[in-house]
């Protein structure tokens, strides 16, 4: 990829990873990018690096803009390997007295990756600034969005927020900007990728995200471009990116139900059909996902998009089916809120799966609809009717629950001009 000037004298010098399909367990069917940025000013500044696998490409991109020996500052917004992986090699080609700006926690983590004893490192906190010339960099700590070391860098004079992992997506594309991507794909695809990224990575941090957005608003800064470390740069619709994050942090979801299930001898699978008919009878949209046929990250995204979720599992060894157990443990780690839950399943001579699921719902402190429904062996006509009524009742409960969130969605943000 050629480097691209995103603001006057500010360049994208990142790389596109077209081939990656597994990002630490998160399926990335569209690949991803590792974005980093070069500011040409009186003091030339590099913000973040790229994944180690692509360090030579990243260095070549920097060299196409400027001689690395002229770099004065390096900002590390986040120490995860895909953003700091090339730093050691970068340090071999920049001046020995280059200054690295990083949070205190970032420095402590960096010391676990590299021998930093000979590096000139300056720790920063929210409100700290450095002047590079016509531009001024303002640092904003964002701990646990999504690592303890994380921060963002605001380029004063460019109205540019270098947002590290926030507002990103896992998309490999020749388009660098939102308007370019929308022209060649669609706005719906961009919004879906943004939601997918949030659901699988940032879901646990909604309260922190709301607090941090409020903090940025109080700083009085104006943003007309958001440049994340993954995916598309928001130059036309930064307000949409902020609005989506505010909505997601407020646990917004559609009035729809996702059925996430797995099956052993198809009995649990057969239960999904009358349940779905009952849901649709109430006019509620429904999506059905079989776990062993669907990547975990896709199931998580569909869960997050839906106000209601039904989990279906056969009983195995008086417990839940293994793939369902894996999903539930993963979901519990994401700490979801305000999604209505219920369970169904089949069993042979002894039950257990439905009870196990309700125990998990309670452990997660999720709102629930009881009782669930369990069927022995194969469905009989009475069982089909019972499943149908279960679906109808759950859909009614979801519609009532959704009223709590009516009128709270936003797509605009005061930060964006």
Q: How are the SSEs placed, and which strands pair?
A:
Elements: E1 4-7, E2 10-12, E3 15-17, E4 22-23, E5 26-27, E6 32-34, E7 37-39, E8 44-47, H1 55-63, E9 71-75, H2 81-84, H3 87-91, E10 99-102, H4 104-113, E11 120-123, E12 129-131, E13 136-141, E14 151-156, E15 160-162, H5 178-184, H6 187-202, H7 206-218, E16 225-227, H8 238-249, E17 254-261, H9 267-281, E18 285-290, H10 296-305, E19 306-312, E20 315-316, E21 319-320, H11 322-334, E22 340-347, H12 353-363, E23 373-376, H13 381-402
Parallel strand pairs: 8-9, 9-10, 10-11, 15-16, 17-18, 17-19, 19-22, 22-23
Antiparallel strand pairs: 1-2, 2-7, 3-6, 4-5, 7-8, 12-13, 13-14, 14-15, 20-21
Helix pairs in contact: 5-6, 6-8, 6-10, 7-8, 9-13
Q: Which band does the percent of strand residues land in?
A: 15-25%
Going by helix content, strand content and strand pairing, the class is: alpha/beta
Using DSSP, what is the number of strands? 23
The global form is: elongated
How much helicity do the residues have?
A: 25-40%
Determine Rg (CA atoms, Å): 24 Å
- The end-to-end distance, rounded to whole angstroms, is 30 Å
Poorly predicted regions: 412-417
Largest sheet: 7 strands, mixed
Number of alpha- plus pi-helical segments: 13
Query: How do the strands line up in the largest sheet?
Result: 1-2-7-8-9-10-11
Arithmetic mean pLDDT: 93
């Amino acid at each position: 990829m050629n480097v691209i000037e995103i603001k006057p004298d500010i360049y994208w010098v990142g790389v596109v990873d077209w081939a990656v399909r597994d990002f630490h367990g998160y399926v990335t069917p569209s690949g991803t990018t590792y974005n980093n940025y070069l500011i040409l000013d009186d003091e030339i500044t590099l913000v973040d690096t790229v994944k180690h696998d692509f360090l030579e490409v990243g260095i070549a991109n920097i060299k196409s803009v400027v001689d690395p020996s002229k770099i004065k500052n390096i900002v590390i917004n986040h120490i995860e390997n895909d953003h700091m992986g090339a730093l050691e090699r970068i340090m071999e080609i920049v001046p020995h007295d280059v200054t690295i700006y990083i949070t205190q926690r970032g420095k402590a983590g960096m010391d676990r990756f590299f021998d930093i004893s000979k590096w000139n490192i300056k720790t920063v906190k929210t409100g700290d600034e450095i002047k590079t010339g016509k531009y001024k960099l303002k640092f904003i700590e964002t701990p646990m969005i999504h690592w303890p070391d994380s921060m963002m860098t605001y380029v004063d004079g460019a109205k540019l927020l270098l947002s590290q992992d926030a507002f990103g997506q896992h998309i490999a594309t020749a388009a660098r900007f939102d308007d370019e991507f929308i022209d060649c794909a669609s706005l719906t695809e961009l919004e879906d990728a943004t939601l997918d990224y949030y659901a699988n990575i940032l879901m646990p941090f909604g309260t922190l995200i709301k607090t941090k957005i409020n903090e940025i608003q109080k700083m009085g800064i104006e943003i007309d471009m958001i440049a994340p470390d993954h995916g598309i740069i928001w130059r036309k619709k930064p307000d949409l990116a902020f609005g989506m994050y505010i909505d997601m942090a407020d646990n917004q979801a559609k009035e729809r139900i996702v059925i996430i299930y797995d099956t052993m001898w198809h009995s649990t699978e057969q239960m999904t059909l009358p349940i779905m008919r009952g849901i649709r009878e109430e006019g509620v949209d429904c999506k059905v996902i079989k776990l062993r046929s669907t990547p975990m990250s896709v199931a998580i995204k569909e869960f997050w998009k839906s106000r209601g979720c039904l989990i279906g599992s056969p009983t195995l060894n008086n417990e839940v089916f293994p793939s369902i157990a894996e999903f539930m443990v993963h979901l519990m780690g994401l700490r979801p809120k305000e999604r209505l839950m219920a369970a169904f399943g089949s069993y042979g001579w002894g039950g257990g799966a439905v009870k196990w699921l309700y125990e998990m719902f309670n452990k997660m402190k999720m709102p629930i609809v009881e009782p669930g429904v369990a069927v022995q062996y194969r469905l009989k006509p009475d069982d089909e009717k019972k499943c149908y009524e279960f679906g109808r009742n759950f859909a009614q409960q979801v519609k009532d629950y959704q009223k709590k969130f009516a009128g709270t969605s936003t797509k605009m943000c005061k930060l964006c001009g």
